[in-house]
Structures are given as structure tokens and as C-alpha cells.
Amino acid sequence: MSVSETAGVATAVATASLEARIAAADWPQLARDLDAQGHAQIERLLTPAECRALAGLYTDDAAFRSRVVMARHGFGRGEYRYFAHPLPALVATLRGGFYPHLVPIANRWHAAMGLATRFPPRHAEFIARCHAAGQTRPTPLLLQYGEGDYNCLHQDLYGEHVFPLQVVLLLSEPGRDFEGGEFVMTEQRPRMQSRPMVLPLRQGDAAVIAVHERPVQGTRGSYRVWLRHGVSRVRAGRRHTAGVIFHDAA
Ligand SMILES: O=C(O)CCC(=O)C(=O)O
Ligand SMILES: [Fe+2]
After folding, report:
1. How many domains does the chain have?
2. Any atom of ligand 1 within 6 Å of the Cβ of 79
3. What are phi and psi of 132, to 5 degrees?
4. Residue 3 Cα, ligand 2 centroid: separation in angstroms?
5. Range of the domain at 191
6. If you count DSSP H runs as helices and E runs as strands, how many of each does the chain have, helices first?
7. Does the CB atom of residue 70 touch ligand 1 within 6 A?
8. Is the residue at 250 inside a domain?
């Protein structure tokens, strides 16, 4: 085999392995956690080598379509870059691999919230829907924080088409690579005070979170809550994350 053929086989093996790890997660439990809390966690989904490889892409200009300096927009402090097409194999595998497991949850949430939209079983079909509506720019991103950086509470909405779940992967190790920089969420309930949540992520962990709203089962039927996520101030070191959002951007 040529060098590029060998590299191609290595990529295919790595891709199949990550897809199998995603499939092997305890999806019934993840669905219960998502229903109860609006977030769920898969510990150590990515290997340290995959985390390093992904974080290392940050300086590879050709991999990205744009760069956002958060302070310029009032989004916080730090920066992120949106991947360009074609997505790196690892990112494409995460997006295509997670999606089918999230569809039943997304469809159930939509039914409970009285929303008409249902999501097709494969990501390519959902992306075709986004593209037909003018949402053609890829949204997976890589974020980089240094000392003093933080990410204000936000929702990743990029147009009319919204897939209601997203995945965040922590690529750095807390305590070793950085201090502070906790992943936080808030849940705003109707006519009540907001509920704060801190997700205790470690390197390689995947957090599956609600993008903006989810149903909560109350005593008299279900009601809708409004979620946001962000990152507390990084006190020292450097923190990288990868974000996988399933809808594309207008
Ligand atoms: O850096 C983080 O943990 C936040 C990432 C984020 O906001 C996202 O992936 O949408
Ligand atoms: Fe986000």
C-alpha cells in the first residue's frame, strides 16, 4: 500500500472505532438523564490522543471557515473557529455517529412540546433540509480559552432549522491543563427562578445537552423550559473543546 492508502485505512479504522464507542454508550440511561436534567455525559468517549489531535487542529487555518474572537461580540473572552467542509474525519464521525441515537429523543421531545417538526433517521437527510432552507455553513467548532477567558451563557441557534440536542467534548484535562473553566448550564422554568447546573467534565468526556428548550413532565402535563450553556472563567492554563451542533448555519 502507498503511504496515503495506509493513512486512509488508519482513518477508516479509527472512524469505525469511534462510531462503535458512540453506539456502545448506555443510550437508555443517557435518554433518562436528558429527560430528567437536560444534559447527559459519556465519560472518556475520546482517547487522549484523539483529544490532542482535535485540539491540535486549532492552528490549521485550512480546516476552518471562520474565526470568532468572543470579546468583539460581547460573547465572553477567548476564541473559536468553525470547521469548513469537508469536516475532519473525527468531527464528521462524531456528527454522523451521534445523530441517529439522538433522533428518538429529539422526536419525543418535539411531540411532548407540541411541535410539528420530526427529524429524519440519518444526518444527511436532516442536513439536506437545512441546506434547502439556506442553512449551508457547517457549525461544528473548536474553542480555545486561555487564562481569564470565559464563555457567556448562550444558545447555539443558527436559523429556522434547529436540532434540539448538541454534543460538547472537553479536549483538555482539568487540574492538569487548566483550572476553573467549568461547563455550566442554566434552566429557566416558567414563572420560577433559574436552575444552575455544573457538568463535571474531564478530558475526552462528551456532554450531550439540550440546545435551547426541552419538555419537563409536571403533575399536570408537560411544560417547556429554556436552557443556556457557557463556561466559567479559566483561572489558569489552556482549555480546548469541540462542539458538535447538528443543524447548519444560515
Ligand atoms: O467550551 C465549552 O465548553 C462550551 C462549548 C460550546 O459553547 C459549544 O460547543 O456550543
Ligand atoms: Fe455553545
Report:
1. 1
2. no
3. -65, -25
4. 38
5. 3-244
6. 6, 15
7. no
8. no
Ligand 1 centroid to Cα of residue 151, in Å, is 8
CATH code (residue 141): 2.60.120.620
| Atom 7 of ligand 1, nearest CA residue | 230
Report yes or no on 249 lying in a domain.
Answer: no
Q: What is the pLDDT along the chain (250 residues), one digit of tens a residue?
A: 676 777 777 788 888 899 999 999 999 999 999 999 999 999 999 999 999 999 999 999 999 999 999 999 999 999 999 999 999 999 999 999 999 999 999 999 999 999 999 999 999 999 999 999 999 999 999 999 999 999 999 999 999 999 999 999 999 999 999 999 999 999 999 999 999 999 999 999 999 999 999 999 988 889 999 999 999 999 999 999 999 999 999 9
Tell me if 69 is assigned to some domain: yes
Site to substitute for ligand 1 among 241, 246, 247, most atoms within 8 A of C-beta = 241
Q: Residue 31: is it exposed, middle or buried by C-beta count within 10 angstroms (0-12/13-18/19+)?
A: middle
Cβ–Cβ < 8 Å for 91, 97: no
Residue 89 lies inside a defined structural domain of this protein: yes
Phi, psi (degrees; rounded to nearest 5) at 193: -75, 160
Residue 183 CA: nearest ligand 1 atom is 3
Closest ligand to 144 CA? 1
